[in-house]
Design brief:
The chain is globular. With about 325 residues, it is α/β, with parallel strands linked by helices. The chain has two domains: about 20-125 and about 255-280, Response regulator (Rossmann fold), CATH 3.40.50; about 130-250 and about 285-320, Response regulator (Rossmann fold, 3-Layer(aba) Sandwich). α2 packs parallel to α9 (about 255-270), α5 (about 130-140) runs parallel beside α6 (about 155-175) and α5 (about 130-140) packs antiparallel against α10. Strands 2-1-3-4-5-11 form a six-stranded parallel sheet, sandwiched between helices. The protein has a six-stranded mixed sheet with strand order 7-6-8-9-10-12, sandwiched between helices. β8, α8 (about 220-230) and β9 form a beta-alpha-beta unit. The chain contains ten helices and twelve strands. The relative contact order is 0.13.
Amino acid sequence: MKLRSVVLALVLVFVLSLPSFAEALRVGVVLSIGGLRDESFNDAAYDGIVELRKSGDCVVEVIEPGSIGSIEHALRYFCERKMDMVCAVGIFANDAVRRIAQEFPDTRFVLLDSVVTVPNVLSILFDEEQGSFYAGAFAALITKSDVVGFLGGMDSPVIASFERGFKNGVRFVKPDAKVVSRYIGVTPEAFDMADKAFNLGLDIAGQGADVIYHASGKSGLGLIQAARRANFMVIGVDSDQSRTAPGKIPASMVKRIDHALVKAAEVMKKDSFDGGIWTLGVQDRGIELALSRFNRDILSPEILTRLKEIEDFLIYKTEK
């Protein structure tokens, strides 16, 4: 009898220690167009999804929209299933989030990397201009030709802020360096045009650029492919892209979308959700420059010291 009692007690302790899926936070995530395996924006979001699933107290479902129009249908699907938190990724979700959030005022929404000013929406931004400044400073430190490049996806105010930050960072370190800029297109499809990015990358390199920074989503894979053929390096964006072409991507300007998603879920778990806007930068782990382990030969102690100084400068400037 004593043994049986001990076994029952152990079983009870085990059951009580399991995560309670009845009380788990139910999260629905609608990715941006382009889908997974973009080795950029969506993959960065998926890292956060994986982390939430591993936590044991979140159940996360994901939809990859095939077009901008299908984002709204995906959001409504999650709302009708009464998910605790509905998250959308990227600027192309703006209109859909605005409409659906007003249609479902009791649902808590999170919009990553864009802004919608509706009371039940938490918009989380990343200081891409600050991060691009960091990338530009790095490009200026490693260029040998004193010519660097910028490749943007859709010609838009958001991507223009990447270009502006990059140019400012280059000039901060090397005022006389030349920056060659190109944009892939003027529609959202510009973020999924790898062939055109390939050709534009070769064109920029043909003008002397030995380092090219991109903000072009999945199109950037074409630029990276061009770097394999020509003598230039690429600074990646949104997630660490160094494994895509080892040795060709010495650094990536990473938006910690994963960190933002987890942070938002933590707020939801505490039931302290409040709509509004967060802006995450270097100072709060929202932005980082991820250095590649495949390019340690060019990361001299002098460059690493200078990068630390630049990071401290960005944090100090923000805190002031």
